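Mods, move this if it's the wrong board.
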Amino acid sequence: MKEFKVKMEETKKQMVEVGKVALFGEFKKLFEERSEVEAVRWTQYTPYFNDGEPCVFRVNEPMFKIGEDGGDYGDGFVYEYEYGRETKEREQLSDAARAVESCEEILQVLFGDHCQVTIWRDNPEAEVEEYSHD
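Not the wrong board. Structure tokens:
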């Protein structure tokens, strides 16, 4: 059993490294193609209550920082569908959003539960903050 645990830890480390490279590669590509996008942010958590359904970890739709103004909180973060530019530009944001939403297991291992994650254009590391939700 000890050998199994060691193998599992090694596998988890590999998953984290591969996931990190893939995730940051996607964002690097986005930042290179869309110079107006300054950051990508999302929340991820396991709900405390889900109307009788199982409480399962999930990653919420990412938001994109585009400028200083705008967004629901005036912080410049908007959802891709709120970004009123040409279709091609929105498609690139949609691709990034799908990349985030499609790798919940890796994101949970990388960043944990009950947190807000922000990837900034000029910072090679993720900014991870505790996130309170109800």
